[in-house]
Amino acid sequence: MAGAGGASLWLGGCGSSGTKVKPVAGDEWKQFAGTSLNFISENTAPTSAIAANLKPFTDLTGIDVKITQLELSALVQKVALDFASGQGSYQIIYADPYQILAPYHKALADLNAFQNDDNLPHAEALSDFIPTQLDAAGRFAGDGKLYALPYDAPTMIWMYRKDLFDKFGARMKQDLGFDPMPSDASTWEDFYKTSQWFKAHAKDTGVPYGHGHMAKQHDSLMNDFSNLLWAYGGDYFNDGVKVGRLGSADPGEPLLDRPEALQAADVYRRLVSIAHPSSLGWDWTGLAEGFTAGGMAMAPLWHEFAATIEGSKLKGKVGYARLPRGPKRSANMYGGTGIGVNGVASKRDQRAAWLFVVWSTQRATQLSNLKSTVGGGTPTRASVYKLPEVQKAKKPPSKMPNILTTDAVFEAWRPENIGLRPKIAAWNECDTTIFTQLSKMLAGQQDPQACMTNTKQGFEKAIENAAKSLRKA
Amino acid sequence: MRSRSRGRIGVRALIAVVLLWTVVPLAWMVLSSFKPADKLTASPPSLTFKPTLDHYSALFGGANDIGGYAVNSLIAAGASTLIAVALGCLAGYGLARSHFRGKDHVSFWIISTRMAPIAAVVLPLFVIFRTTGLLGSTLGLIVAYLTFNLPFAIWIMNAFFADLPPALEEAAMVDGASPWVAFRRIALPLVLPGIATTAVLCLVFSWNDYAFAATFSGPDSQTLPIAASQLVTQTEIDWGQLTAIGTIVVAPMIVVGLVVRRWLVTGLTLGAVTGE
Amino acid sequence: MRRLTFPGRMMTPALVVLAALSLFPFVYIIVMSLSSVGLIGGIHFSWSGLDNWTRLFTDPSVGASWIRSVVYFVATVGLELVLGIAIALIVHELVWGKNIALSLILMPMFMAPVIVGLLGRFLTDSTYGLYAWVLKSTGLYSGDILGSTKAAFVAVTLMDVWQWTPLITLIVLAGLASLPGQVLEAAKVDGASYWQRLRYIVLPMVAGVIIVALLIRSMDAIRYFDIIQNTTNGGPADATKTIPIRLYETGFRFFDLGYAAAIGLSMLAVSILVANLFLKTLQRRGLAR
User: Fold this and answer.
1) Using CB atoms within 10 A as the burial measure, which of A435, B84, B220, C181 is most buried?
2) B50 C-beta neighbours (distance < 10 Å), count
3) Which residues contact B8 (CB under 8 A, 6 or more apart)?
4) C147·A73 Cβ contact <8 A
5) Neighbours of C (≥3 Cβ pairs closer than 8 A)?
6) Chain A (95-114) residues lying within 8 Å, Cβ to Cβ, of chain C
7) Closest Cα of chain C to A356: distance in Å?
8) Residues 6+ apart with CB under 8 A from A105
9) From the centroid of its chain, how far is CA A325?
10) What residues are paired with A298 via a beta bridge?
């Protein structure tokens, strides 16, 4: 807690200095001209947008940046291997808070040193970053350091076929006895029944299934399930909000065998059982493709897929809402990531990399990402959303398709709605444990009880292993 | 006679099924690489489309130019092949012409290194490369590929040389040639097909490698199979570019592979079976 | 010191390199398996005795991976053997177009396994995959191929079979080509049917070659894991988590290098066993020189 307090003090002090430094072509931006840097990133929308438009950065700094984009699990492995190699080949790192920052934060540079260095350009106001995201993507366990700046902010929301809901809404309301239109009051039970209705009326609606899941034995399954876990009042650890937002070196006992968690697992199993059968083989990419192809009426998906969807034949036909609520709350998994500097790289490269970190998270870049035709960004600065042209883009037809989701996403980001998974050193093994056990449950090999008991044991073992290797380090 | 012609038809029908099974995936890959993006993920799959070179031009230009990857692939696979074949020729000849106690053990050791599971080899090599600074470099990949290419080359060249009657070289040596000259002038030219086969197979194995490159390569030493796997992205899998890369990766290997087809069997069975 | 003979000198450079490439890592992996290894912030080994080994023999998930590997191994190699022999027999009967047919059949062998895996994903995708569509419209299978445990296992098996059956075909064909024509002609004249000739003459005569094919394929089947890694990466419900996948995950996702080393050594032991069998066979056939 002390660390968090210190951090916010520091934030307050820095707000003013941040705004006065504008990225005008000055010496401090040009001091590393001629340097080559490597940026390793998950292949996400903002990175695609930046990769397609690197010229402004090269013009500004004279630094040549080569971008490697990878699928998330490949990225995590590659970054970990690079840290382990001690070479720092990738100076700029897309630091997933859970799979990279939490286990390997010791290998990331503390950005405070750069931000406080008068010879380097400063990041625009840090207080402009959405505060939860600055903590979740940038810090670890209140150690006072800043490891990354919020770079993107994909968040799981409820995507639904507005055209179908408009057309069949009245009939559904009559059949179901409630208004199926996604609203604040919608529950997962409603969601289930609505999905069932669509499945039963596939002939009329033209979509074969009500909804789909990203339930492949993959990180996606953990993300998808967690929404239910929290909605039904379960959590990974005690004080889950703190373990999620700030991270913890010692999270305590996993709570995954509590009745709420069991209920969530049971509900999730029921949901998947009526979902599009390909759900079991889909990660988020597959689910988005299935949804775009017209395979279902609803899907819990990362909001940044709006860009792809609005570029398809579903353009203008999709609505976006916060995810349904359970008995406890609505929980919307936050999947944002920070951009950080490889602490293993040479000091000079680190400082040059900082320039890219600053540039890629500044307002102007986030705005131009939003307009990019190849990606579409997910801004992490509150001020970007307030710009008049961004506000205008909230209504279709929009030149910034991701902005169509803004209302849903801002709802999802409210502290009571956001879903933050644990930020702990053992996360990679814990993640694998839970998505493996869930996958076994969905395949009918074990019931929710066994699934969650095994998951809990797996968590305990993983945490113990991590603690052992940390003690030795 | 009738049963004979019926048999012929049967054989043709069977071969048609076999060819369908083998060729369709490859043909679909090549076909898809020329499909416009919207047709690629059409459901159900479509066969009618206006061919486009978009995917190929996207691969050779823009943000993710695969030119560099191709060069890395060529250097890593090529250099490792050259070294393996050169050393393999010497050692293969030496092994074929020597008789010593424990020769069986040496042979066994050589071949067992080639059999080692890749996942098990990658592990210690990573730590060793970490210490020696070979990680992330093309040189590291060349060394890594030698772990399977070198024993392979030694073993196969041994098989090819062993098929040569030593009498030829002995005759040359009686005429005053040094052992080296006998090897260089007499034996080596006679096993040229063997050398070609060994080289082709070494090239194929290393060109196609994924596991080593995925673990050891850095930003400047990534190879084509890595480029292919990178097209699996968060927002979509770029099947157009992926099938195009697949075509680019497989085409040269099929060509060189079929060039040495006559001797392939000797190569692939490590000399245990000789072809035609 | 005794001077090396000429063949000895010829062998030296290669054997020195090979020793450096194999013995050194071998010793290293043994030491790793007896330690707890950390990598972040510099390599550090700390002695942990037989911890990793006791864990290896008591870890049910590794046990399950071994069983899965054995099933996968038997399924792929078994199918490849049966199909490979069958295809060789068919191609052998061809009078016209034999070369072209064989060239086409061999093509998958030259493909990078990672591409085979990715192409397999493309073909089995439930939304736009060609094979998924064919199966669905013929009513054979309508679920998600890589999403159900059995179908995914079958799919990755078939991908391997697609790629490597040609190898068996090639080897068996070489055996068939070397059969003495007169014996077969004589049997034909005596009125032996095709199946009789196959059963009593052809198969026994190529049996040796088939065993070589089997062993060669076995050794490679243990080595590679690219196809599974790029399709299901072990899922769903661990249905395709074979031992190399488990090893890679332990080593390079959890960075539990000591434990991974123990798993790796156990794999190495199995492959050496197979290599041994291979060599024995060669010696019996008088082929090891």
Assistant:
1) B84
2) 8
3) C95
4) no
5) A, B
6) 104, 106-107
7) 24
8) A140, A145, A147
9) 19
10) A160, A211
Is residue A379 within 8 Å of residue A358, measured between CB atoms? no
Distance CA(B59)–CA(B66), nearest Å, equals: 6
What's residue A11's pLDDT? Answer: 36
CA C16 to chain CA centroid, Å, is 28
Looking up tokens 């444990």, which residue turns up?
A: A433
Q: Measuring CA to CA, how many Å separate C37 from each of A249, A462, A463, A469, A473?
A: 20, 16, 17, 8, 9
Question: Given phi > 0 = left and psi -120 to 50 = alpha, else beta, which region is C57?
Answer: alpha
Residue of B nearest to C256 (CA): B123
Structure tokens that stand for A28 in this block = 């401090």
pLDDT, one tens digit per residue, over A93-147 is 999 999 999 988 989 999 999 999 999 999 999 999 998 899 999 999 888 999 9
d(CA A433, CA A466): 14
Q: Cα-atom radius of gyration of chain C, to the nearest Å? A: 23
Q: What is the pTM of this model?
A: 0.86
Task: For residues A45 and A305, give the distance between their C-alpha atoms in angstroms, rounded to a whole number.
Answer: 9
DSSP states of chain B:
-HHHHHHHHHHHHHHHHHHHHHHHHHHHHHHHTTS-HHHHT-SS---------HHHHHHTSSTT--HHHHHHHHHHHHHHHHHHHHHHHHHHHHHHT---TTHHHHHHHHHHHHHS-HHHHHHHHHHHHHHHT-TTSHHHHHHHHHHHHHHHHHHHHHHHHHTS-THHHHHHHHTT--HHHIIIIIIHHHTHHHHHHHHHHHHHHHHT--HHHHHH--TTS--HHHHHHTTB-SS-B-HHHHHHHHHHHHHHHHHHHHHTHHHHHHHHTTTSS---
Residue ranges of alpha helices (H) inside A177-317 are 188-200, 202-205, 219-231, 240-245, 259-274, 284-292, 306-310
Tokens of C67: 């069983």
* ipTM for the predicted complex: 0.89
Q: Smallest Cα–Cα separation from B245: which of A67, C112, A45?
A: C112
Nearest C-alpha of chain B: how many angstroms from A263? 30
* CA–CA min distance C149, chain B (Å): 22
A3-7, A420-424, C90-94: which has the minimum mean pLDDT? A3-7
Estimate the crossing angle of helix C98-106 against helix B2-32, to 10 degrees: 40
How far apart CA A315 and CA A401 sit, in angstroms, is 9
Residue B49 in contact with partner chain C when CB distance is under 8 A: no
- Whether A429 and chain C come into contact, CB under 8 Å, resolves to yes
Task: Categorize the per-residue pLDDT at C138 as very low, low, confident or very high, splitting at 50, 70 and 90.
Answer: very high
All residues of chain C having their beta carbon less than 8 Å from the beta carbon of residue B22 are 104-105, 107-108, 162, 166
% chain A with pLDDT above 90:
67
Taking the C-alpha atoms of residue A20 and residue A12, their distance in angstroms, rounded to an integer, is 14
**Residues 6+ positions from C117 with CB-CB distance below 8 Å:** C159, C226, C227, C228, C229, C230, C231
Contact A71 B135 (CB under 8 A): no
Contacts of A53 (CB under 8 A, 6+ apart): A368, A372
Instruction: Determine phi and psi for B202, rounding to 5 degrees.
Output: -60, -40
CB A422 within 8 A of CB A229: no
Which chains does chain A touch, 3 or more C-beta pairs < 8 A?
Answer: B, C
Residue in chain A closest to C234 (alpha carbons) equals A217
C contact test, residue of A99, A469, A471 with most C CBs within 10 A: A469
Does the beta carbon of B223 lie under 8 angstroms from any beta carbon of chain A?
no
Contact present, C267 and C243 (Cβ < 8 Å): yes
Q: Which of A47, A58, A77, A87 best tests the B interface by mutation, with the highest count of B CBs <10 A?
A: A87
* Tens of pLDDT, residues C90-137: 999 888 888 899 999 999 999 999 999 999 999 998 888 999 999 999
